[in-house]
Amino acid sequence: MKSIIQTINLTKKFGDFVANNNISLDIKEGEIRCIVGENGAGKSTLMNMLYGLVAPSSGKILIRGEEVKMTNPLTAIGVGIGMVHQHFKLVSSLTVYENILLGVEIKKKNSPLIDKKEEIKKVAKMIEDNHLQLNPTDKIEDISIGERQRVEILKMLYRNVDILILDEPTAVLTPKEVDDLIATLKLLKEQGKTIIVITHKLREVMELADSITVLKHGNVVGDVLKQDTDEKEIARMMVGRDVCLTVQNDRKHTVEKQVVYQVDNLNVLNDDGKKVINNVSFKVNKGEIFGIAGVEGNGQSELIKVLTGLMEAESGNVILYGKNVTNRWPKELRKEGIGIIPEDRYATGLCREMSVSDNCIAGYHDNKEILKYGLYNSKKIDEIRDKYIDEFDIRLGDKNGVIGNLSGGNAQKVIIARELASKPKILMACQPTRGVDIGSIEFIHNEIIKFRDQGNTVILVSSELSEIMSLSDRVIVMYKGQITGEISPTEVSTVEIGLLMAGIKGENKHEK
To answer: Domain named ABC transporter: which ranges (predicted)?
Structure first.
């Protein structure tokens, strides 16, 4: 096969930080290349250089053997490169066909007016040719996330790109939509397109890729054909050691028939006055991991914010061990026995500019062991920090430095160590492994299971369906702020949970 994209010693620096270091790739015409690596490995920066969003510090980009200076996305589209971003760039109030043809509208003959009839006809033909399920005249605001992604792909195809880059394309899709996307990408490959996919989901890599490039700390550490590798080998290249990719959760523990946490008819409005949680009710038992699943953006984030005191409920009740704790502050909830792993570690869990020691006591700084007569016991605080470092294998260059210098995984371990040290009865774990390396994910999963096996309760929110299904004892699924069903992870198929995630309600056969 001919080379279609080559990079030669491509480097990108942001100040002293080297995001990509002498990257040399050779991507063949008509192949599907997966670019994998941990968060911060340099995947997105590399693709942004290929698409003209970021200028290289040094090195060359060759398209079909010719060097090209990628000054902006129009340059990239001009040489046949299109990109579908993780966060879609569509106009919600416009229709499918209007978004696809935005900026390249079809005009009536000898007229400045747009020929809407011809535009709809052309887009309908594209949809049919690519075996997609879309209505050209539907508004973007009325279609699903998966359908919006198809619109983004068609936008690029209409502009005659033959190289398509997709950044974490399955992050916000239901299982059915993931399968549909994989089928679409394989069809595009059959049509001669070259596909580059940035992802961290190794199962999808093995299903989709022809070849795989592994990045670590901005360097290429592996370039392999799919048939010559497996998930464990890819993970080993990403992390630098063997990693257990399956959660060791035997579910032999006893879940007591004691309701310790209850949400009744909860309704929540966002800042615009729109209802984002609609009459949600559920009960959580002592000694279980209770999962909350769904495509991101369907109310899970707002729900956990209300449950952790970061957002107010309009109506309804939250009951903890028989006590009404609705709209309590986070500090009050902690005193009631709730530990909090927040969705965004640096927004509400840590202070990036403060020391590791200070972050180890954040939220618990009025503890009598730490604060006495208005003075902090710095020796005791450092002892707490060192204990967390040892017990949770927190790796850091300077233990007296600021927490912003730590990797995502090690920063997350500080939060988990701090929250578990408070001996909570219930742990609210929201996206506990987001932006965390595979090795740290394994550690965090084990800590959550250990906490549960000690008779405690976990409420787990995650956009990673595999994480929810492998850790949870029971799961509710949310869609547009409502619960569409409750399931037992060991008794339900991926198809069934995918339907619930798409808003198709099921019977609550496993409700307790």
So the answer is: 5-242, 261-505
